[in-house]
From TrEMBL:
It comes from the Eukaryota. This is Amidohydrolase-related domain-containing protein. InterPro entries: ACMSD (IPR032465), Amidohydro-rel (IPR006680), Metal_Hydrolase (IPR032466). Residues 56-328 form the Amidohydrolase-related domain. Gene3D superfamilies: Metal-dependent hydrolases. One of its GO terms (molecular function) is hydrolase activity. PANTHER family: 2-AMINO-3-CARBOXYLMUCONATE-6-SEMIALDEHYDE DECARBOXYLASE, CATALYTIC_ HYDROLASE. It holds the Pfam family Amidohydro_2. Belongs to the metallo-dependent hydrolases superfamily. Keywords: Decarboxylase, Lyase. It comes from Vitis vinifera (Grape).
Amino acid sequence: MAVRLKPLLPLSVVPHNSNPSNLFFPFSKKSHFQASAAKMAANEVQSKASSNAKIIDSHLHVWASAEEAADKYPYFPGQEPTLPGHLQFLLQCMEEAHVDGALIVQPINHKFDHSLVTSVLKKHPSKFVGCCLANPAEDGSGVKQLEHLVLKDGYRAVRFNPYLWPSGQQMTNEIGKAMFSKAGELGVPVAFMCMKGLNLHISEIEKLCKEFPSTVVLLDHLAFCKPPTNDEENQAFSNLLKLSRFPQVYVKFSALFRVSRLPPPYQDLAPLLSQVVSSFGANRVMWGSDFPFVVPECGYKGAKESVSLIANEIPLSSSELEWIMGRTVMELFQGQWLPS
């Protein structure tokens, strides 16, 4: 039986600085980050003890260890990982960072073979939700695959990677529309990975949102919008903010190391987060780590702490931060992570 998404009520957003560029305060790299992080962590323990708010990671990956790949879950040829991303490592990182649950996004390392992620979902059904990878094969088999992964294996989201579409074709082709429509029927959000820039895909996303308004959309990693330094980047970020006019669109404030131009805690993203929250509302924004890629960048725990440090500079209210750090994704996937 398909799980239907419950529409969210608008969240009143605290007014933010009208000139976000004034929000940036230079950070003195690692030592300042560690000191601030320690202070923030202490405050977080106190805050969490009083509110018991769950922390949910909206974007991470898990793949087989070398032993598991050799035995049961082979990597897709040419997509062998260069760093560890196995389940035990993930669980250890989440425990150390006090993260309660996560949305696992099918990694390209296993491409359309979802068996490893499916096994993780079955082992930890109350901890993880699965986001499968859409297969845009020209024979249309991806539509049935999507239906099977949702109805039989329990996946509750699907990722559209535009670079997997046949050469010269867009996500708005017949296959793309069929999968996007099917996702809406099944009540599962579609996540877009615009790694080469939002400007390349904005027209496709807008067309799909207009034609299928019941399909929820997630924009991975701020839609890969960096702090703008030229007209093209300004246009991309403007396009991102304009997508807020579609009530079905949500933004992942995830993989901060991919979009920031600074070392952790990625404080140049404060103006971007301020504007995204002002446009979408905090109840349409969600934090994600992009584990395991984030581990060598700032550590998994550092990825979580960076968001609170950035939020303090805007500033966001404690309620808004609670939405971003877990409540938004919990509302999207209702019944998965029960409040404490």
